[in-house]
Amino acid sequence: MKKQLIIFGSVFGGFFLILLFLPMAFNGKVDTIVKSETNKKLNATFNYSKLSISLLRNFPKATIELEDLSIVGAGEFAKDTLVSTKSFQVVVNLLSLFGNSGYEVSKVVLDRPVVNAIVGKDGKMNWDIMKPDSTVAKTDTTPSKFHLKLKKLAIDEGRITYNDRKAGQLLTLNKFSGTLSGDMTADVTDIETQMKAEKVSFTMGNIPYLRDANIELEANLNADLKNSKYTLKKNKIKVNDLEASLDGWVAMLPKGYGMDLKLSTPALAFKNILSLVPAIYANDFKSVQADGKVSLEGYAKGQYSDSVMPSFKIALNVINAWFKYPNLPKSVTNINLQLIAENPGNRLDQVQLHVPKFHFEMGGNPFDLSGNFSNLLGNTAFAMKAAGRLDLGGIKDFYPLEAGTGLTGLITANLAASGTMEQVQSGQYENINANGLLQINNMNYKGKDMPAVRIPQAKLQFSPKFAELSNTQIIIGKSDISADGKLENIIPYVMKNQTIKGTLNVSSNNLNFNELMASSTTTTSNKSVQTTAFVVPKNIDFVLNAKAKKVVYNKFDINNLAGQIIVKDGIASMKNVQLGMFDGTITTNGSYSTVDPKKPAVDFDLNIQTASFAKTFVSLDMVQKLVPIFENVKGNYSVKMSLKSLLDDKMNIDYNSLLANGLLQSNNVQVGGVSALNSLATALKNDKLKSFSTKDLKIPFTIAEKAVNVKPFDVKIANYTLNLGGKTGLDKSILYNGKLTLPPGTPSPLGINLSNIPFQILGTFSNPKIKLGTAELGKSIANTALSTAKSAVAPKLDAAKAEAQKKMDQIRADAKAKADALLQAAQSQADNIVNQAKNPFAKIAAKKLADETMKKAQQKANDIIAKGDEEAQKLQVSK
């Protein structure tokens, strides 16, 4: 017996090891099959991070698991992920991998899938990714070995979105879980399905038909898989507390779907309908008492495709209903509602929504709403009315407010509007009927973890062309706002999410954004608060004329703000906005853009006048990081600069993208306690550099590549001139080249008679190093020595020059005297020759002889002078 147990244990252990390690041998083959077969069939990018195989999980079948699976569309959907899932499991007959009859898949499980189904405005569907047979034939003539013999499909906590951009429909399901089981290998089979989802919302034509609902589905289907027709048998659909069932069938057609469905609600009560109101369903709904007559019916029949809509109708009637929270003193009474959503034909332009009557009373205050909307998916025609009074102070008697909430005030409305969207969009206001008044008086609201809100009055008067806002005052905590102006295009904004336009005049005595944005983790003081990037809506076209005496935002204290802010196309542009900040004044022109919401951008021209260095340093993180010297500078400055940068999601500067340039000027600067200047003063043996005051300071700068680059500038320190230029990095690294110029006659601090001392400052702002320019110093020392030598011999050289000049003048004078004497003697001799001749012919001959005598004498005189000049030149003294 013992031996048999040992044999059995050995066989079982060996078999177990085979099941455990055998999948490793097939991993590569299955990986190749999955990728090749899938990509062969899809016009999409199919990928996953890991493939694993197990023979134990669903023995005797193999379980193939793909982790982090994704399918990304192609073409116009190339940036849209159709499907992604944490885990995708397929149970397959292992032996079918080695046969020729095909691969048998019996079970599929998806863990936390995300599905984004999109229909483009042109009707194209992003899930239409299967390659047509002709394409497959051209690319690969080998027949596919994949055969679906599915018996169960399971989904766990998925998120599904259906976005039909052409029809204006949006469906979202969260935490979607479900199972579908049946024999999918048969032509006709019964399928059982169970599904549930949370926070389900459905919108069509910008009208929300369902919001944040919980849905459950249990259904048995008779599936004609050969003809793709599914007939409903026993089923139950539950939406919040409303339970219903469907009878009929749905079929998949070559283009679209066919259907014949009818809605039935056998045990319907008004409380079930009340559960569809999110605010009531989410607030102690089980304890709500309610009653009233109610009926709900609906059907859908026909074909659904890109251009065809089935005829359908959903009709809800509520008569004399009421509801009450048991712990509150009063009921909401006289609730009467008629609601019909239908498409009587089969065209998209026939979809209609009618609300002939919606009436309720709260504390004797009636409120009535009605509306008719036709052609919801085209040129929508509308007719709406709203009239009544809401006593906000009485709401606490009907609806349980959150602990600590206070609400009072009165809202009065009497509004009416009718026309078509085409008339509104084309500005045919004369054909639109829109009038009425919405007014708020003495409204007070106090909530948990937020400042109190008070609206003494607000008035919105409607006309066909615009709505006029007047006498509006809002007080939130310590902040106050007064506003008036005109708003245009309100109806398209509300119904079609189109652009609202207007001009608003907004003023405030005190506006504290820190208080308005405060949460449980922030304070309402002037300390920094955690901010997030504000997205400028693209469907707002406003001109805001703003005035505010005091504004507090983050660490900024702003005074006397005035200017124009233009909001359009996702960009807020400032035009000549002036404000007091940093104890100075700022004029700015520029923009804040969220055209790309993930990359907010600023582009400003700033003109800052007489601002405080100290206040700027405390308030601006960018200055603390890039210009740390501001902490050690007293006085005021002015700067004109241009700045461009991207921002992160917390409204912080993205230093990789920051670009700026400008000119900083000051006539009042006191500098002290700067490590770099202290080190420079020590190196140059000049304590005046440690702490000094200066005027007429002009510093040109640029900011790029995470550094402030300063062009060379001069600083006057007593009688010295300090020239400096270089850069400071975001990491506080510094590299500056400088030169200290001494006034004439000033002894050099280095013990050498120098007028210019070059140096370099490097290292970091808190740990600087000084390097004197040795090559420049050497050249300067040589030039100084030569100049000194020249100065020493100058007096002797001048005396020698004077003595030589005296001798030269004497030689030249002696030579001239000899030449003059020679010429004088020659002249006497020539005169005697002429006087001794008696007759005319003799005189002519004598005259000729006399001239010849003078010519020879002049030649000899010139020779004497030239020889004397030559002798004098020999005595010339070099400089």
Helix content: 10-25%
Instruction: Specify the structural class.
Output: alpha+beta
Helical segment count: 12
The low-pLDDT segments are 1-25, 135-139, 519-528
- The geometry reads as elongated
Distance between the termini: 131 Å
Number of strands: 40
Rg for CA atoms: 49 Å
The profile of the biggest β sheet is: 40 strands, mixed
Beta-strand share of residues: over 45%
**How confident overall, as mean pLDDT?**
82
Structure description:
There is one protein chain. This protein is an alpha+beta fold. The chain is 22% helix and 50% strand. The protein has twelve helices and 40 strands. It has a 40-stranded mixed beta sheet that branches. Helix 11 (774-836) packs antiparallel against helix 12 (840-873).
List the helices and strands and how they pair.
Blueprint: H1 2-41, E1 45-47, E2 50-58, E3 61-72, E4 81-92, E5 103-111, E6 114-119, H2 133-139, E7 146-164, E8 169-181, E9 188-204, E10 207-224, E11 229-239, E12 242-252, E13 257-264, H3 270-274, H4 278-281, E14 289-304, E15 311-324, E16 332-343, E17 352-362, E18 365-374, E19 381-391, E20 406-420, H5 421-425, E21 433-446, E22 453-462, E23 466-476, E24 479-488, H6 490-496, E25 500-508, E26 511-512, H7 513-516, E27 540-553, E28 556-568, E29 571-581, E30 584-593, E31 601-612, H8 613-619, H9 621-626, E32 633-646, E33 659-672, H10 675-684, E34 691-694, E35 697-704, E36 707-717, E37 720-729, E38 733-741, E39 756-764, E40 768-772, H11 774-836, H12 840-873
Parallel strand pairs: 5-7, 6-7, 25-27, 26-27
Antiparallel strand pairs: 1-3, 2-3, 3-4, 4-5, 4-6, 7-8, 8-9, 9-10, 10-11, 11-12, 12-13, 13-14, 14-15, 15-16, 16-17, 17-18, 18-19, 19-20, 20-21, 21-22, 22-23, 23-24, 24-25, 27-28, 28-29, 29-30, 30-31, 31-32, 32-33, 33-34, 33-35, 35-36, 36-37, 37-38, 38-39, 39-40
Helix pairs in contact: 11-12
